[in-house]
What we know:
Layout: H1 2-15, H2 22-28, H3 30-46, H4 50-64, E1 67-68, E2 73-74, E3 79-80, E4 87-88, E5 93-94, E6 99-100, E7 105-107, E8 120-121, E9 126-127, E10 132-134, E11 138-139, E12 144-145, E13 150-151, E14 160-162, E15 167-169, H5 173-183, H6 198-226, H7 242-249
Parallel strand pairs: 1-4, 2-5, 3-6, 4-7, 5-8, 6-9, 7-10, 8-11, 9-12, 10-13, 12-14
Antiparallel strand pairs: 14-15
Helix pairs in contact: 3-4, 6-7
Amino acid sequence: MFSRLREDIASIRERDPAARNSWEVLTCYPGLHAVILHRWAKACWHAELKWLGRFISHLGRALTGIEIHPGASIGRRVFIDHGMGVVIGETAVVGDDATIYQGVTLGGTSLSKGAKRHPTLGRGVIIGAGAKVLGGFTVGDGAKVGSNAVVTKEVPAGATAVGNPARIVERNPGQQERDQAAARLFAAYGVLPNGDDPLSKALHGLINQVAAQEQQLEAVLAALTGAGIGCRRLEEAGHFDAAQLNRLVD
Length: 250
C-alpha cells in the first residue's frame, strides 16, 4: 500500500509544477485523497459490501468534490488535478498514468444495467478541464481531450479531440512527430503545441481558397481589358478581405 502511495505522490510531483514537496501532496491534494478512498471503496465493492463501498465513495465526494463510483477501475499513477466536479461512472476504466482535470465527466448514455455504459481511457490519456466523455467507447493510449470538449465517439491512440461535438485534430506526419516530441514532457489540459481546431483550419483553408480565386479573377479581367475587351471591374465595396476574415476565425 505504501509503495503505491509513494508512486502516486512521485507521479503528481512530476506532472504538477505547483507541488513543492511530498508532504504537501499527501495532505493537500484532493485528487490523491479521492484515489485512496476509491481503493477502499472498490475493495468493499468486490467483497460484496456494496453499501459500504457506496458510503465510502459518498464520503470521498463530500471531502474532495470528486465522485468515483466504487465499481469503476482506476489504474496506477492516475492524477486528478484540482478535481472539483469530476464524476467517474460505474463501468468506467481509467488506464495507468492518466491525467484528469477539474469538471470532467466520464459518463454513460445507456440505461441498460450490466452493460458497459462508461468510457475506457487508455494509458497516458489526458482529459482537459470541463470535458465530457460520454459512452462505452475507448479513448486510446496517449490520446488527449481538450478542455470543454464533448466526446461521444472513440478517440484513436495518440489523437487529440477538441470542440463540441468533439473533432479529431489531424496533422501531417512531420508535424505529428514534432508535436509528440514536444508533448513528451507533459501536455497540460490536453493542449498540444499549435493544436488548431480542425474546424478553424478548414475555415482558414476556405478563406485562402476564395482569396486565391479572387486574385485569379483579377488577372483574367486585367488580361481581357488589355486585349480591348470591355469588362466591368469588381466593385471595390465587394473586395474580399482574407486577412480580416482569418483574424476573425482565429
